[in-house]
User: Fold these one by one.
Assistant:
Number 1:
Amino acid sequence: MPNRRNLYFFYKQTEEMTKAIEPLRDFAKKHNFTLVSDYRDADIIASVGGDNAFLQAIRKTDFREDCLYVGINIDQLGFYTDFDIKDPNAMITAVEDEQLEVWRNAVIEVSIDGQKPFYCINECTIRSNVIKTLVMDVFIDDLHFETFRGDGLIISTPTGSTAYNKSVRGAIVDPKLPSLQVSELASLNNNTYRTLGTSFILGGERSLTIKIIQDGNDHPIMGVDNEALSIQHAEMITLRLAEKKIKTLKLKHNSFWQKVQRSFL
Ligand code: NAD
């Protein structure tokens, strides 16, 4: 990677983390990386601290398409973090042995009431913020598919399918399939209200539109990865796979399905 040597470390700004990261900074300088203090000057953005830090790193650096993201763990390896802070040499060995690859991670584009879109890499969750059901009309492209009443919906990418989506018994989707998965959070199903009752997976060309039924008692909240947004007055939310992808540096021999096996079986 001769032209990609401007490196920015993203981590929680605590005294403990700053200290923990010092050997990594020395290591990077020794290997001729230039450490930059502004992420906009970086070619490589390295998050330190697990999936949580990786998700925050992408968000806080504006989902950049023109740089490489690298996840470095401080405990056990995560789904987005292939490298270990205790073994920086492994990264250099992987470069020398050509054991690295760049994965282009799907991103969901979310637009509220036609406003400027924002992005997520795991999932977007639309749910009730109070102990009351939320009612939403769900459209696949232009088709009014169902009226949902319940706690909420999770719309996940394939790489997000192993996260919140899995906890509600959604399917794990191979990241080689560009798609959006829609999973329910406690839907009400009776003679008056009916939803599909299972997760469904949409091809990458489709869009999902959610119209929140404003009955005066609706208190929706939106989660985009590990960030919460108030959408109290939102009427229409449109979700689709974004054209942009997030380039992530990973180890060749640590595939998605190996991570799934290691984490869940
Ligand atoms: P967190 O601290 O609540 O951790 C949630 C766990 O999910 C962590 O172990 C993290 O490593 C793991 N995780 C994150 N992304 C993953 C992925 N793509 N595949 C498998 N595991 C993954 O929060 P965090 O670390 O900031 O992660 C945020 C994510 O937590 C959200 O995007 C959402 O998917 C998930 N979440 C899950 C539940 C649930 O399972 N009930 C509830 C809320 C949020």
Number 2:
Amino acid sequence: MCGIVGYVGPRPAPELLISSLQRLEYRGYDSAGIAVPDGGGLAVLKSPGKVRTLGDRVRSEWAPALREGARAGIAHTRWATHGPPTQANAHPHCDQSGRIALVHNGIIENYADIRRQLEAQGHTFASQTDSEVLCHLVGEYYRDGDLLQAVCAAMRHAEGTLGIAVLCADRPDQLIIARRGSPIVIGIGDDETVVASDAAAIVAHTNRVIYLNDDDVAVVTAGSVEVRTAQNVPVSREVAKLEWDSEAAEKGGFAHFMLKEIFEQPDAIRNSTRGRLDEGAGTAKLGGLAMAPREIAEIGRMVMVACGTSMHAGLVGRFLFEDLADLPADVEQAAEFRYRNPILSPRDLVLAISQSGETADTLAAVREAKQKGAVIAGLCNVVGSTIARETGRGVYLHAGPEIGVASTKAFTCQVSVLLMMALKFGRCRRLSRDRGVEICRAIAALPDAAARVLEQNDAIAKIAAKYAAIRDIFYIGRGTMYPVALEGALKLKEISYIHAEGYHAAELKHGPIAMLEPVVPVLAIATDTPGREKMVGNIQECRARHSPVIAVVSGDDRQFDDMAADVIRVPACPALTAPIPVAIALQLFAYHVARLKGCEIDQPRNLAKSVTVE
Ligand code: G6P
């Protein structure tokens, strides 16, 4: 959940590390720190707060000779787990000698035992973190100038997950990098090497990368990368090309990444679906699934595991698999799934849905499903991510990097991909070619539908202005619009801190209706999709309790004009694709409410983009 950057090369390291770290700030932003070689020792600076604060301190506290002269370094932005976001708990941490510095993502599970052992050997600790313990462990194993074997030994001793970068004053021209369960990417530039926990920090420098495997350790210098296993055996890892260009990780004139990503949706959906629709045959081509029609026909049940927004996409997907592929489909919160002893058979397909491909609970659910012999596949956005690698088969979203903490384009691309999967599965089972052709056309029309919702931006902003001061709101929907209501409410609470609850419209009467009063609005999704007629009744129930209703309707539908205080119009779409334009409208609504409240939209309080802890 934190961000790591490291650099070795001819350029001044501090400025480069700070600017690269800023691109990772969406991963965690409660404290930050940096370490560089300094006159035979190390200079370390750490600061609570944002990377900006750290950058200001580097500029004011470090002498120009250090700022300009350091040619290597490591840096970190933190999302606190062990210990609050104080200066002492910020990374990098140093070992007992103060000559080794380390930045760490992940959790060391046996850190308390290691700490006790090391304390008995005379080590003293400055922080409450598990990461500092790991650094001391490396220091303890460091002998005869061999940092690589020290890191390998520490990796074998430490249990849990780690992505680390280590800098030692004895070798100011090299870094040691290691990975177990927490990603590390090595970017290979022209006579320079940039390492990071996430490609977003690398794209500005190079598009040639090496993804480390679990339990890999690498020695990197400006001109070389040498990868070994934790047993210190050399291995070769291929150099891949990053798909994203540096613009993809910039705001490009938008006030926030979230807004940029909302507006990218027509293109993102186009990229997700490009080359994957076969209109002639009325099906989709998803090579990464690597499943023959016969295998698809033999699937007995779909189980989607995911968290947060990805789980909401799965809930939409459930309708699609049932409707198009005649396939029983369940969606499970990944943490619930892994701890519940789920019943699985070899005919079950467990699909892990994860934008980042790093969510700890989703990953653990994949491992549990693998253990129980189910067929597993991944639906991820981040190429080379842990879930993508562990599932070994699946579909990438190709949505481009999502930097805003509140997920937007990933959701609509996930739904688009689930639609294509359901179509393909359907065509291997009972779906007719004619129906398949219709669905292909509906999918192909999605980028245009998304663009038309974006044309409503100003209208939605005006409506949002009327609700920026509310404290509570309910979102209601039916059918596929029920998960969209959940997702709309999640967006609003994530970025505006307004108490927003998503409910099935039919469930309103079973409790939440007690909350309704004139200051509690209800956003009702009343599009021209199954359940619309029933929604008319639900809206009347809300009005009868004097709750203002914001109705989301299809096209020119006028039926709700008199019933609703406000109407948000989305383009009319076939029922199967309608969740996408509605989700975009609700993203815009949440964005404008949060903007008007002056909230930190791209970095909402307490949240992190990828949750790599349970
Ligand atoms: C975090 C993010 C959410 C995201 C969820 C699952 O909570 O803030 O936006 O939906 O994790 O993430 P994933 O990367 O697995 O889709």
